[in-house]
Write a structure and sequence with these properties.
GO biological process, one term: tRNA processing
Protein name: tRNA nucleotidyltransferase A-adding
Structural class: alpha+beta
CATH superfamily of the largest domain: Beta Polymerase, domain 2
Strand content: 5-15%
Keywords: Magnesium, Metal-binding, Nucleotide-binding, Nucleotidyltransferase, RNA-binding, Transferase, tRNA processing, tRNA-binding
Shape: elongated
Number of strands: 11
CATH class of the largest domain: Alpha Beta
EC number: 2.7.7.72
Helix content: 40-55%
CATH topology of the largest domain: Beta Polymerase, domain 2
Oligomer: single chain
Cofactor: Mg(2+)
Distance between the termini: 73 Å
C-alpha cells in the first residue's frame, strides 16, 4: 500500500486519471479546461492520491463562479457570503463551486470574514490540515499544494497549517479525529498540543451537534469518538464512553429503521451524570425525540420497569410508547420479546366497539382497550368466545371492576 501511495503521489497524472474514471466527474470534465482556472480541492484530491474514490467533488474557481455554474447546470443552492454555488448538472450529481478566498476570524469560533482572491495558492492556507491543502487543476492535472502537503500524505500524518487554526475554528478538532480514524493517519505532536488546548465553548452547541452527527455516521464511529477524547477530552462530557458495555447487544436488537446513531450515543452517555448530560444534549440542539433517547441511557427509571417486568402485559406497559431505540438500550429478554413479538400484537376491537357497548366517551375507552390488550398478551381471554367478543368482554369486565 505504501509503495502504491508513493507512486501515485509522485505521478502528476495519477489523480487526474483516477478522476476521469469517476462517473460523477464526467459532466464536469466535459465542460472545463485548464484555462478556466478551476481546481479540485480538499478531501477529494487527498482521496484520489490515496487511491480512494471521493464522495464529494469540491471545486475552487480563480474568479467569479457564476459563469462556470451556468455552464454546468441549474443552481440548487447559493451562499453569497462565501461566494459559493451548488449545482446539479444531472440527477444525483452535485458540485460545490467556491471562489478562491482568504479567511479572517474576528474572534475565536466566529464564522470567518472572507476576501476573494484570484489564485488558488492564496486559498490553500485556510484549509484545516496540510493533506487537504492540495489542489488539482482540471484539464491538465497540474497539482499545487502548501509546503509539505504531499510529504505528510505519504507519511500518513495530520498537521494543522498554523498555530491559530484550532483557535479560529475548534470544529477542526472534530474533523481531525474523523480523518485520523477513517484514514488511519497519525496526528503529529504539535497538532496534538493545539487540539488539547482548543476551547470548545467558543462555538455553538449546534455546530458541535453537526460535527457529532458526522462522527456518528463514520464507518467506525467508536474510533472517531475515542480519538476525539484522546485529542481534546473537554469536547465530550465527563463519563462519555465511546465503546460502552452492552452497545453491541443493543444494536443487534434494534430493528430495521431504528436510529443506530442514537443508540450508540445514548449508550455512550450512560455513564454521564444527568446534571452534565442534560445541558450538553440541549446545547446540541437535538430534536425532542432525539433528546428522549439519548437521555434514557442515564435514567434508570426509564429502563428499569422494562427490565423488571414479568408478564407480557407488564412488558407492554413499560415499552408502549417508548422509542424502539430506548427499548433496545434496555436490553435483555424482555426487550427482545417486545421488539420481536409483543409490539406486533393488535386487538380486533377498537374504541367504537366500546362506545357501542355503552362505555361513555372519554378516558374509560382507552383504559378498556389497554385492559383488553393486557388480557390478550397474558393469555387471559376466554378461549370459548370469538376473539373480538372475548376482547370486548375483558375490556368491560376491567372497567366494571375499576
Amino acid at each position: 500500500m505504501a509503495d502504491d501511495r508513493t507512486r501515485r503521489l509522485l505521478d502528476p497524472d495519477a489523480a487526474l486519471t483516477a478522476l476521469r474514471r469517476l462517473p460523477a466527474a464526467r459532466p464536469l470534465l466535459d465542460v472545463v479546461g485548464p484555462r478556466d482556472g478551476v481546481w479540485l480541492v480538499g478531501g477529494a484530491v487527498r482521496d484520489l492520491l490515496l487511491g480512494i474514490a471521493p464522495h464529494e467533488l469540491d471545486l475552487l474557481v480563480e474568479g467569479p463562479v457564476d459563469d462556470l455554474a451556468a455552464r454546468l447546470g441549474p443552481a440548487v443552492a447559493r451562499h453569497e457570503r462565501f461566494g459559493t454555488v451548488e449545482v446539479e448538472p444531472r440527477p444525483g450529481v452535485r458540485y460545490d463551486l467556491a471562489r478562491a478566498r482568504r479567511e479572517r476570524y474576528a474572534e475565536p469560533g466566529a464564522l470567518p470574514e472572507v476576501e476573494p482572491v484570484d489564485r488558488v495558492q492564496d486559498d490553500l492556507p485556510r484549509r484545516d490540515v496540510t493533506v487537504n491543502a492540495i489542489a488539482l487543476r482540471l484539464g491538465d492535472g497540474a497539482l499545487t499544494e502548501v509546503p509539505g502537503a504531499r510529504d505528510d500524505l505519504a507519511a500518513g500524518v495530520l498537521r494543522v497549517l498554523h498555530d491559530r487554526s484550532l483557535i479560529d475554528d475548534p470544529t477542526r478538532v472534530w474533523r481531525i479525529a474523523r480523518y485520523a480514524a477513517r484514514l488511519g493517519f497519525a496526528v503529529e505532536p504539535r497538532t496534538r498540543e493545539l487540539a488539547a488546548a482548543s476551547d470548545p465553548t467558543t462555538i455553538s452547541g449546534a455546530r458541535h451537534g453537526s460535527e457529532l452527527r458526522l462522527a456518528l455516521s463514520e464507518p467506525d464511529p467508536a474510533r472517531v469518538l475515542a480519538t476525539l477524547l484522546e485529542l481534546a477530552p473537554t469536547f465530550l462530557p465527563r463519563g462519555f464512553d465511546p465503546e460502552p458495555p452492552g452497545l453491541d447487544a443493543a444494536l443487534a436488537l434494534l430493528p430495521t429503521g431504528g436510529r443506530r446513531d442514537l443508540v450508540r450515543l445514548a449508550a455512550s452517555c450512560s455513564g454521564v451524570a444527568l446534571e452534565h448530560l442534560l445541558p450538553w444534549i440541549d446545547a446540541l440542539e437535538l430534536t425532542s425525540a432525539e433528546r428522549d433517547v439519548v437521555g434514557a441511557g442515564s435514567r434508570s427509571s426509564t429502563l428499569q420497569p422494562l427490565r423488571a417486568a414479568r408478564l407480557p402485559s407488564e412488558i407492554q406497559r413499560a415499552a408502549a410508547g417508548a422509542p424502539l431505540e430506548v427499548v433496545a438500550l434496555a436490553g435483555g429478554p424482555n426487550a427482545r420479546r417486545w421488539i420481536e413479538e409483543l409490539r406486533h400484537v393488535r386487538l380486533e376491537i377498537d374504541g367504537r366497539d366500546l362506545l357501542a357497548a355503552g362505555v361513555a366517551p372519554g378516558p374509560a375507552v382507552g383504559r378498556g382497550l389497554a385492559a383488553a390488550l393486557g388480557a390478550k398478551l397474558d393469555g387471559r381471554l376466554d378461549p370459548a368466545r370469538p376473539a373480538a367478543e372475548a376482547e370486548l368482554a375483558a375490556a368491560l369486565s376491567a372497567l366494571a371492576g375499576a
